[in-house]
Design goal:
20% strand; 3 domains; TIM Barrel; 22 helices; 5-stranded antiparallel β-sheet; alpha/beta; single chain; Alpha-Beta Plaits
Length: 619
């Protein structure tokens, strides 16, 4: 302010006696005007621009500000004002920005409220941030619940509410890692329901689902009562119990200090599953077969432990069902054999290394050939002859029986078509059909297509189906068989007497021939009851107009017994072992072609048997 002088205020300078003035002591003005005097005269504030002895040349402060501050130093004034206004402006701008931001956040929160179905907050006296905080708390709570439900959905079996296979295996892996560090033993039970498939097929899947739900509840109760429970902290699922899929369940026992603990649990489960299942007005009975594997004796990782328990379970099934078995290395060898033969069968099928043999079934009165049963044979390049009793069950378990069965029926029909054209017009070829084929093949179009391709008349084909498969057959399968019978194809029940079918069921089945199981033939001459059963079956066949075949006839006494009982046909080693197609052609066609041409068949004389054919004694 030292630059101020009187030339700047030509009309505003006043001359005032120094003695009449009162110096200002205002600290702010003193600091602002360091080199100029400020005084008060008549309550007016003056600013001295020149001093002469006893006279002040002074300008009123108002005039000075008008001239100097507002005009001469305008930028300084602007800067001075800005120092006060800028924070205010910025504050307003920030509030506006925050308002827009909060409004956007509120809109997003409203969307989240809608998505999570959270009621909108009512208007209240709470400030915006309090309401925002409350809203976020509600959404966070909902998100936590959603996360919990999502975790359950990922790891939970939807039907039973148990842990699924993936979550169970993950839990097993964690437990086995701990067991390795602590050098402790663990056990695993593999549970498979007996008779569940029949329930599903008979009453429908919804009925079967309800059975599975009740089984799961019984197993959960067992886990709790046996102190085996371990709940997941997030999902609250039982980690030591799982539904692996279908009718398979598993229980993991973390503490097996007592080796008998797993056995005790298995026995308890079998008893629980065998209790009646009540659904509406129906009472259902099923059972359970259980395999037990022990860590580290049976396996050292989760997948292998589960597999070994599965192997033990299959042994329980094989040994009678409704029991448990503990895994042993011998079972592992059987499983390795199973997988080995399965791969070898695939190669054999691709390379056409299977062959068919043909065993004649003859009339007991004149030994005329009624039909040949086609039997598959496998001569392995390394192991030699492998019996059907060993490889057929493996083929059925793996569904390899489907392509193998296609080859069997096609090859059998092709061979029979050749014999038929050569004169055997009254002989049939029989082909065994498995339960797997009944389930996966639409019988009527499948068989008729093969007959059409091979040129074999439909009346020259006989399909053999075991009694147990008939029991499990669906109404659609029965309908398909009935259609085939109308085409001329005959149907036989194989292994009759071992499947516990009711007589009423037998009366309704589309069947032409009953093949009596070898068990009754073996026992009939030794045990009276079996003899009487054979008599009853013979009478049953006559009343139902069904042809009877006695299987497994190996002795002359059995042949004579069968003939006396009125059973029309026999099959077995006494008559003939299975023969190659070449041997059949030589024996039936080449040696007696004229007889075949006249009768459409030929005789196949039993070995080591004195019998009469056309009034001639054969020795």
């Amino acid at each position: 302010m030292s630059a101020l002088h009187q030339d700047l205020f030509p009309s505003s300078v006043e001359k005032i006696s120094i003695s009449e003035t009162e110096q200002s002591k205002n600290s702010f003005l003193s600091a602002l005007f360091l080199n100029n005097t400020v005084f008060i005269q008549d309550k007016k504030l003056y600013f001295v621009v020149k001093k002469e002895q006893k006279i002040y040349h002074a300008v009123p402060m108002r005039a000075m500000f008008n001239k100097v501050i507002l005009l001469t130093n305008f930028p300084l004034l602007v800067l001075f004002i800005s120092a006060f206004l800028l924070p205010f402006y910025l504050n307003i701008k920030n509030k506006r920005k925050n308002y827009i931001l909060i409004k956007g956040i509120n809109n997003k929160l409203a969307s989240l409220h809608h998505i999570f179905e959270i009621p909108t907050l009512e208007k209240s006296n709470h400030d915006t941030f309090s309401k925002l905080n409350t809203s976020l708390d509600l959404i966070l709570d909902k998100a936590n619940k959603f996360q919990h439900e999502s975790s359950i959905n990922i790891f939970q079996d939807k039907l039973t509410g148990l842990s699924d296979r993936h979550a169970y295996l993950q839990h097993l892996s964690e437990q086995l890692e701990k067991a390795e560090k602590l050098n402790t033993k663990k056990s695993l039970l593999f549970i498979d329901l007996d008779g569940f498939k029949q329930v599903n097929d008979s009453f429908g899947h919804s009925f079967g689902d309800e059975i599975l739900i009740q089984v799961a509840e019984r197993l959960k109760t067992t886990v709790r009562n046996q102190s085996l429970s371990s709940l997941d902290s997030v999902t609250l699922l039982e980690k030591n119990l799982s539904r692996l899929g279908g009718d398979e369940f598993s229980i993991f026992i973390e503490d097996v200090a007592d080796p008998a603990k797993a056995v005790e649990v298995a026995q308890h489960i079998i008893q629980e599953i065998e209790r009646d299942f009540v659904l509406g007005n129906k009472v259902i009975k099923i059972g359970a077969s259980i395999g037990i594997a022990v860590y580290p004796d049976s396996a050292v990782n989760a997948h292998a432990l589960l597999q070994m328990a599965d192997v033990a379970m299959y042994r329980a099934k094989t040994d009678g069902r409704g029991i448990f078995r503990i895994y042993s290395p011998e079972m592992g060898n059987k499983m390795r054999r199973h997988h080995y033969l399965l791969e070898e069968m695939r190669l054999a099928l691709a390379n056409q290394n299977f062959k068919l043999s043909f065993q004649p079934i003859v009339n007991v009165q004149d030994c005329s050939i009624l039909y040949f049963e086609s039997l598959i044979r496998w001569n392995h390049p390394v192991e030699g002859e492998i019996t059907p009793s060993e490889f057929i069950p493996i083929a059925e378990d793996s569904n390899l029986i489907l392509p193998l069965g296609d080859w069997i029926i096609h090859e059998a029909c092709r061979q029979m078509a050749a014999w038929f054209n050569a004169g055997m017009k009254k002989v049939k070829i029989s082909v065994n059909i498995s339960g797997v084929q009944l389930k996966h093949r639409e019988l009527h179009p499948w068989v008729m297509d093969i007959l059409d391709k091979t040129g074999l008349p439909s009346h020259a084909l006989l399909l053999e189906i075991t009694e147990s498969c008939f029991i499990e057959a669906t109404s659609d399968t029965i309908e398909q068989l009935d259609l085939l019978r109308k085409e001329g194809v005959q149907i036989a029940i194989d292994d009759f007497g071992t499947g516990f079918s009711s007589l009423s069921t037998l009366a309704d089945l589309p069947v032409d021939i009953i093949k009596i199981d070898k068990l009754f033939i073996d026992q009939a001459n030794e045990k009276t009851k079996y003899n009487k059963i054979l008599e009853s079956i013979s009478e049953l066949g006559k009343k139902l107009n069904l042809k009877l075949v006695a299987e497994g006839v190996e002795e002359a006494e059995q042949f004579e017994l069968v003939r006396k009982l009125g059973i029309q046909c026999v099959q077995g080693y006494l008559v003939s072992r299975p023969e190659t197609s070449r041997n059949v052609g030589t024996k039936v066609l080449k040696n007696n072609l004229n007889h075949v041409a006249m009768t459409g068949t030929n005789v196949w004389l039993p070995q080591k048997l004195n019998t009469t054919v056309n009034n001639v004694v054969i020795k």
